[in-house]
User: What shape does this take?
Amino acid sequence: MEKRGKRHALSTRIWHWINAISVIILFMSGLNISNAHRRLYWGDSGFAPEQAWLEVPRFPGWATIPDYYSLAAARDWHVVFALVFGFSLLAFMILAFANGHMKRDIFARAREWKPANIWHDVREHLKFNFDHGEGKYNILQKIAYAGTILVLIPVMIFTGMVMSPGMEAAWPWLTDVFGGRQSARSIHFLAAWGLFVFFVVHVLLVLASGPVKQIRDMITGGKE
Amino acid sequence: MMQRRNFLVAGFAAFLAGCNEIGKSDWFGKVVEGAQGWHRGLHRALGGGRIAMAPEYTRADLSPYFRGNGSLTVDTEAYREAEAQGFVNWQLSIGGLVNNPGALSMKDIGALPQRTQITRHDCVEGWSAIGEWTGPQLSTILEAAGVQPEANFIVFRCADNLNGADYYESCDMDDAFHAQTIIAHRLNGEALPVKNGAPLRLRIERQLGYKHAKYLTGIEAVASLDDIEGGNGGYWEDRGYQWYAGI
Assistant: This one.
């Protein structure tokens, strides 16, 4: 059990910052990797323009790691931080289920799902009132956090695993779950932008709700 | 407000510069090597080692044509002559740490037991193509050659020269003796086209495209990769790409 009095458990704080660094590095090295082949396809295979469903723009150097085009160097960053990203999430999930954080703070109760409650929460957000809701987090926060931790990030990890031919030979069923390797690649790309949207909204809401206290609490733990 | 924005821009620029510096450092190179080892170990552990097979497809899944990438031909007089002759005199040498060094003719290769597999080729750039490949398993050739116990890697020598350096590749014994590792001489039921590596290319299905060496001229069993070309075990590996291309 977590000691009383801290707003964020130590495991939550450590994972939060490791994950923040991983997401930034994986996203920016991923944009460099995207520049190597800018077309996206559905299904198992694809390489020609007529097979593509989307051609994405070339991402500029300031948005990529390293800040010049290098598929080899970008893959180095991706290969290292993929492990950090995956195993730190696994550790956080085990601890967050064990210490009750998931059940207590992240999962929404049935009554919170009532449209009236969600609508009320939307209006409070529009009024820049973020201090409401019965638990630690309001329903929109719970949807955002659960959606990111339980859906978006695992989708990033599993579609990444599908794209790795050695991993695919070990777990070929995972490729079928996503409808083929090129589908997994497309979903990886879309989920990455989903995480980017979460990142931007998350940072903006922290800025709007007392950033000094919010960031300090995510470092020191803060008070309940 | 202006100052704060300048501060953020400067911070971001410092972060990018820092990443560039770290990326070039020796210690980060060691971290990357360690991470590659982890990925390879995880893949082998989760799949049960040599047993795990890359997915195989049906003829209905074949790509409309098979894209060529990297070298699309070999720019030498000898190769043009061999091509004009239909590669009848092409030879694959077998050497290094083996008991029976020698060379296989195209006829010898065609006379070995053949494996046909419809597999997906994944380029490191991100695209994939599906083709039907036919050829003897590398394990058959290596067993006949008698690989000595000190050998840790198989090196693949190629006829093509890319940007002034000879193409080559290498793999460990797990992949060398894997059931789907074949010396392909046919693609989609026809002789291997020049752009795809005629007359012989490696298929090493649990790794990315650059491992699938084309225009094969020789196979060598070696104890270490250190003294070969740039010492990193392959043409692209010598240019910064990962040696374990199963990631």
Q: What stands out?
A: Residues 120 and 126 of chain A are 10 Å apart (CA to CA). The mean pLDDT of chain A is 93. Strands of chain A lie at 39-40, 54-55. The longest strand of chain A covers residues 39-40.
